[in-house]
Predict the 3D structure of the following.
Amino acid sequence: MSSDQTFVIVGASLAGASAAEELRKQRFDGRIVLIGSEEHPPYIRPPLSKDYLAGKAGLDDVYVHPSDWYKDNSIELLVSTTVDSIDRAAHTVTLSNAEVLHYDKLLLTTGSRPRVPDIDGADLPGVYYLRTLDDSSALAEVLSRGKQQVVLVGSGWIGMEVAATARTLGNEVRVLEHASIPLSAALGDELGEYFARLHEEHGVILSTGVTVEEILSKDGGIGGVRVGGTNVIGADIVLLAVGAQPNVELAEAAGLEVDNGILVDASLTSSDPDIFAAGDVANAMHPVIGQRLRSEHWANAQNQGPAAARSMLGQEVSFDDIPYFYTDQYDLGMEYSGYASLAKGATVVYRGEKDSGEFIAFWVSDGRVVAGMNVNVWDVNEDI
């Protein structure tokens, strides 16, 4: 494409950085501007609840590219910068420093942010969320001390991974969950119980079916967590991990169609033909199952960003990747591939024995496999 074109990417995320890289691989020689609100260059998020949080990985392990890569590839990386508005008619974005940039094509990879529960004391010192690199650095500093009373509110993947990391670092860990079984929404009751037992075997206290009513303060820090009326659980650190919500405000203000993310078709094109979306914020039509999917996992950002880049270049794109994610908790490694929305109520079939700690599970619905998960069994995911 002509070098007089400008492609702007809002969101210096994995999806955004992957899209910029793909544009250069496809020999787009125009201007690329990658805009990020954080002071860091783009980074990957899985280590934030695993090795980086545990002190086993450094910044070089989490950054998508070395710092000089952007300059070497003529990509203008603007950090600590936000986009205040999009003018679709003028094809411009206005930055937080009042600069106005023209775009020919615009990609939104604005990601998501932690949900803030309606709990008194959720903003106290000693209450943490985990989304950004800075969040992980701050949490790592306190967890590394060991012997802390750590209370995690929420038993999704982030909550359970942090629980494993915190426990491995020698802290006392309790998980509070409103549902009856951790991870049941993602894996179903049977495999949710499998992960619950794993944590209990490592000394984590799981309290399910509870409602957190208040986080108490004491001497400028945390004094405990109140559940069930007058019942107070001791805590030095509280992590609120009750899910994430997509950052759609910029798109919504610009008049794009939004519903649990920015609505895009299989080519990752929004309701405006010159604006695209990828990563956590994209609620994309999946051509295989005929349903919309919004995925907050690493693989989706890694693969959807380049697909959006090709679509921006006018290439025919139909993003049909099978959703994939992985987790590492204690000595358990797991990979999951499939369609969680189709796995609800499906029959789970096992290859191997669960109690051995090495097995493969398949979710079967209407005679077809809709998802598969391998636990401590490797080099099989492409066959699932």
